[in-house]
Each structure stands twice: as C-alpha cells, then as structure tokens.
Amino acid sequence: MTSRTTKKPTNTAYAALLRGVNVGGSRKVPMAELREILEGLGHEDVRTYLQSGNAVFTSARTDADGLARELEQAIEARFGFAVACLVLDGARLRAVADACPFPAAELEGKQLHATFLSEQPDASRFDGIDREAHLPEEFRLGDRVLYLYAPEGLGRSKLAEVLARPALTQGIDATTRNWNTVAKLVEMTSD
Predict the structure, then answer these.
(1) How far is 76 from 62, CA to CA, in rounded Å?
(2) Element (H, E) at 47
(3) How confident is the model at residue 9, as a pLDDT?
(4) Could you tell me which residues come within 8 angstroms of residue 2 by beta carbon, excluding any fewer than 6 positions away?
(5) Over the chain (191 residues), what is each successive 10-residue block's mean pLDDT?
(6) How many CA atoms lie within 13 A of 49 on its CB side?
(7) What phi and psi values does residue 145 have, to the nearest 5 degrees?
(8) How far apart are CA 45 and CA 24, in angstroms?
C-alpha cells in the first residue's frame, strides 16, 4: 500500500504598499484595521510597519496584481474611499534594493527614496526634466521603480515635486518609501 502525502503549498511573503493614507489627517486607515482586512482576505503572518500604509503578509496565491485589486476593493468597502495598493513579493523588493544605483549603505535613509510603480513607464516620459538644474538631487529609472537621491530629504526636494507631476505617472499607480522603509520591508519579507 502506498501512502500519499499532501504537500502544503508554500506561502509567498508579500508587502502591501498603500498610497496616500494617514497623511495630514485624511484618508485614515488604522493599521489594526488593515491587519484585520488582510486576515479577513485569508492571508497569514500579517504585520504592519509604521502608520504609513505598509503591511507584510504571506499567501499561497501567486498573483500580486490580483492580491492588490482585492485589497483595494476591501479597503474601499470598509472605509468608503479608494486607495491604490501595490503588492510586491519579497523577491521583487530584494531586487529593487539590490539594483539601487546609489550608495544606499553610505546615505541616510531620508536621503534615498524608491517610488514603486505599478508598471514600467517609457523612459521618454522623463526626457523633459532638466537633470542638471536639480543637482545634487538625482533620479534613476529602474524596473518598475524610480530611485531618488535627495540629500536634504523628500520634503525639501524640488526634483521630487517635478517627478510627482501627474503627466509623468499618468496611468500608473505610484507610491514612495524612504530607504529605511525599503530596507525594513525587505527584511520583513525575507523572514
């Protein structure tokens, strides 16, 4: 008699990045409620990081875009407003960190940022930016990510203002995290 063993599916670690929540007193999404939503969607090992819309979870599902749409629908049903969500697996986060064109280890976390993009924009969208005029600030386009070096921080960055213009990200969901947050999410999805 042969015995059959059922192999439990391996869960993938994901980070959910919510765009524009808990900023300036509007679009409040309490992290405890975000955890409840993710658990209600059947995800496991749910944790949040900071109050700015970062969550980590595991799931047997492998469709990150589908997970993001499902989370967006659940947030809108719960809070009554739409929130763009990007869901990235741990391997993608690690690849973003590894491909950073700036010396991340030598910079303060507030000086380096990653803007995660739902799809890859054509590089020509950025041709009209006068890069020389914004030095020492710089940006580089990666694989569905825009890296920004802003020595004085994002709040004082003139280049960040230019990069946030709707014409540059039209049709693309985008959300920015400082490098400390990127590094922490890489760590949390690698556990």
Answers:
(1) 23
(2) strand 44-49
(3) 61
(4) none
(5) 56 93 78 95 94 91 95 95 95 97 94 96 93 96 96 93 89 93 96 70
(6) 21
(7) -150, 145
(8) 29
